[in-house]
Design a protein that fits this description.
It is built from 13 helices and 20 strands. By secondary structure, the protein is of the alpha/beta class. The chain has a 5-stranded parallel sheet, with helices on both faces. Strands 16-17-18-20-19 form a 5-stranded mixed beta barrel. α7 runs parallel beside α8 and α12 (327-340) runs parallel beside α13 (367-390). The structure holds iron/sulfur cluster (SF4). Iron/sulfur cluster binds at residues 164, 166, 168, 171, 173-174, 208-209, 292.
Length: 457
């Protein structure tokens, strides 16, 4: 610990004088896109209050660490990040999911200035004000119209709700983040519109359970551009779909009402892309996982969706080696995958999370069996992905450029969400830049990515 940090702690009860220059906050954001959106919201408020964002520990007057506490590995990463910030800077405020368990943080890092819980924006802001007072009153014209964002300028995550009403046995997010709390539809549509006006070309809709959107506020109505919308999944898709940007729906569950969005996808009002965390294909495992919609015949649903929108891309994540998973249940998952032919797939081995009810289930699967199943599952998923991507060779498509390295542009098609899916690599594209649209012709494919050239004409 540095002497400066010791001094700051000793003065923490009285308000230290504001620095003559703009106060600078360092920010470390860990975890999922939902946490990233929290970070953006906190930074947006701080910028509105005249704070600057420091690019390095050295340049910061105080560092905020937004933590993740989802699985034990994320907890360790968060605790390490707090340690690094303390070592490099000394003045650290902690927030985010792990903040719901302050004792775990304080036990290892008693020197942190303050610990606040997930989505407790006011508490984080108050902690920053206490330890680094603002210099100005808020001048909202200091802010770019889209607020402060941590993603590139051309895409943005749009968080529609906090928390979750489900009780999946492997998950503690409802304990950390509370019950579902939806934002009103007019508020979300206004934010979407603001982002698009500021240059965002792709909106990524996120929450813990997007298909449940609005259930907690009885689908309250709101007005936007003289039209009435309900706070519900389909109205959200309809409203955002009118903005002229790509709209990508994440964390959807296969409830019957999701069928309603398929015609909007077929008309390209929203992207023909569904991110559905199926987690398993065996009904008995899904029941033990206590997954939402676990009794739904998902294969029939996927078939019907693809009939309504043949280009639909489905991405999903799975857990193998869940407690009690037998070889027969795992084989059921493989057979389910063969039938479902999902385009994009991620796979995790089950790992116990402190406080999750699944920990108490009998017959935990040995790690070597988990690993063997993960490999078998991913081989199957990769073969399916390669087959589905090769069917795109020769097609023309519109892509959105994320970056350009030498003369290769790294872009994404309708089928690719940033960070988690594959990309389209366009050779000979040095005139393109991040945020450009490009029309390309697909020349080849591998298991995860497509290769393309700029389309003539
Ligand atoms: S749906 Fe299940 S896994 Fe997802 S946040 Fe809710 S409880 Fe957790």
């Amino acid at each position: 610990m540095t002497r400066a940090a010791t001094k700051s702690r000793s003065t923490s009860r009285s308000v230290p004088p504001a620095p003559k220059r703009a106060p600078k906050v360092g920010f470390v954001s860990l975890g999922c896109p939902k946490a990233l959106v929290d970070s953006e919201r906190i930074l947006t408020h701080l910028r509105a209050e005249g704070y600057e964002v420091a690019p390095t520990y050295d340049a910061a007057d105080v560092v905020v660490v937004n933590t993740c506490g989802f699985i034990d590995a994320a907890v360790d990463e968060s605790l390490d990040a707090i340690g690094e910030a303390l070592e490099q800077n000394g003045r650290v405020i902690v927030t985010g999911c792990l903040g719901a368990k302050p004792e775990r943080i304080l036990e290892r890092h008693p020197r942190v200035l303050k610990v606040t819980g997930p989505h407790a924006y006011e508490d984080v802001l108050n902690a920053v004000h206490e330890h680094l007072p603002p210099q100005h009153d808020p001048f909202f014209d200091l802010l770019p119209p889209q607020g402060v964002r941590l993603t590139p300028r051309h895409y943005a995550y749009l968080k529609i709700a906090e928390g979750c009403n489900n009780k999946c046995s492997f998950c503690i997010i409802p304990d950390l983040r509370g019950k579902l709390a939806s934002r009103r539809i007019d508020d979300v549509l206004r934010e979407g519109e603001r982002l698009v006006k500021a240059g965002v070309k792709e909106l990524l809709v996120i929450s813990q359970d997007t298909s449940a959107y609005g259930a907690d506020i009885r689908y309250a109505t709101g007005t936007w551009h003289d039209e009435t919308y309900q706070t519900r999944f389909i109205d959200l898709a309809r409203g955002l779909g009118s903005l002229g940007a790509w709209v990508r729906l994440h964390y959807v569950y296969p409830y019957p009402h999701v069928d309603e969005v398929i015609p909007l996808m077929a008309e390209r009002r929203v992207l023909p892309y569904l991110d559905i965390p199926f987690q398993h294909g065996s009904p008995s495992v899904l029941k033990r996982m206590r997954r939402p919609a676990h009794s739904v015949n998902t294969l029939a649903r996927i078939r019907a969706w693809r009939e309504g929108c043949p280009d639909l891309v489905i991405r999903s994540t799975f857990i193998v080696g869940f407690p009690g998973e037998t070889e027969a249940e795992f084989e059921e998952l493989l057979a389910w995958m063969d039938e479902a032919q999902l385009d994009r797939v991620g796979c995790f081995k089950y790992s116990p999370v402190d406080g999750a009810t699944a920990n108490a289930l009998p017959d935990h699967v040995p790690p070597e069996v988990q690993e063997e199943r993960r490999i078998r599952f991913m081989e199957r998923a990769a073969a399916i992905s390669a087959k589905r991507l090769s069917a795109r060779v020769g097609r023309r498509m519109r892509v959105l450029v994320d970056s350009v390295e030498k003369n290769v542009a790294i872009a994404r098609s309708e089928a690719d969400a940033p960070e988690i899916d594959g990309v389209v690599r366009i050779k000979g594209a040095k005139t393109l830049k991040a945020g450009d649209w490009a029309d390309v012709e697909i020349t080849s494919a591998d298991a995860y990515d497509l290769y393309a050239r700029l389309a003539a004409g």
